[in-house]
Amino acid sequence: PDVIIEAQFDDNDAEHGQDHLQDTLTDDIKKLSLDTAEKGDGVHRTRQDDGPKVNDPRLLPDESLQRTAKVVYILEKKHSRAATGFIKLLADRNSELFKRCAMFSPVDHRVPRVYVPLADCPPDFVTKPEAYSQMLFICRIVDWKEDCNFASGQLCKSLGQAGEIEPESEGILTEYGVDFSDFSPEVLECLPQNLPWVISPGELAKRRDLR
């Protein structure tokens, strides 16, 4: 059968790479001919979706190359290491880990699952795990070993039932490291004390009203 082989190469390699390209195409055609002959009688069609197998990557188009890299250093840890999620018992009830840890599954799937100590869980969690299946918890990752699929962490607090506004809001604020504690007395003293307070006409005339 007829075989059409296409190849692309840079103009810079045209002077020195033409002979190499022709040799490569010749070898590929020979291999295809041998493969067809070994299959015996009948019609066999050979399709090369990825083009010829060229050892020199400079002869390949840019869209055929996959750029790779690796992390060499962490400049700054931006994530708060806190996550909102649910706790559940480990699947293997006969393992030693089952007696010591529970599994924390974050709501955000970008965060890994975490082993948390049973001591951090509610006292009746082992006997009544279904009672906490819809209970939101805050977990903070403390370690993640290179040879372990799951991180290690500690349960910080119970937020409440999933789906309610208060627990969900507190979980989001904690994950992003937002301080939502009450304002201190020093901050409250900066506010107007004589209530009800209104904007004076002179101040209002100097400002753009965005209400």
TrEMBL record:
<keyword id="KW-0694">RNA-binding</keyword>
<protein>
    <submittedName>
        <fullName>DI3L2 exonuclease</fullName>
    </submittedName>
</protein>
<dbReference type="InterPro" id="IPR041505">
    <property type="entry name" value="Dis3_CSD2"/>
</dbReference>
<keyword id="KW-0269">Exonuclease</keyword>
<dbReference type="GO" id="GO:0008266">
    <property type="term" value="F:poly(U) RNA binding"/>
</dbReference>
<feature type="region of interest" description="Disordered">
    <location>
        <begin position="36"/>
        <end position="61"/>
    </location>
</feature>
<dbReference type="InterPro" id="IPR012340">
    <property type="entry name" value="NA-bd_OB-fold"/>
</dbReference>
<feature type="domain" description="CSD2">
    <location>
        <begin position="102"/>
        <end position="177"/>
    </location>
</feature>
<dbReference type="GO" id="GO:0010587">
    <property type="term" value="P:miRNA catabolic process"/>
</dbReference>
<dbReference type="GO" id="GO:0000175">
    <property type="term" value="F:3'-5'-RNA exonuclease activity"/>
</dbReference>
<keyword id="KW-0963">Cytoplasm</keyword>
<dbReference type="GO" id="GO:0000932">
    <property type="term" value="C:P-body"/>
</dbReference>
<dbReference type="Pfam" id="PF17849">
    <property type="entry name" value="OB_Dis3"/>
</dbReference>
<keyword id="KW-0479">Metal-binding</keyword>
<keyword id="KW-0460">Magnesium</keyword>
<dbReference type="InterPro" id="IPR050180">
    <property type="entry name" value="RNR_Ribonuclease"/>
</dbReference>
<keyword id="KW-0540">Nuclease</keyword>
<dbReference type="GO" id="GO:0006402">
    <property type="term" value="P:mRNA catabolic process"/>
</dbReference>
<dbReference type="GO" id="GO:0046872">
    <property type="term" value="F:metal ion binding"/>
</dbReference>
<keyword id="KW-0378">Hydrolase</keyword>
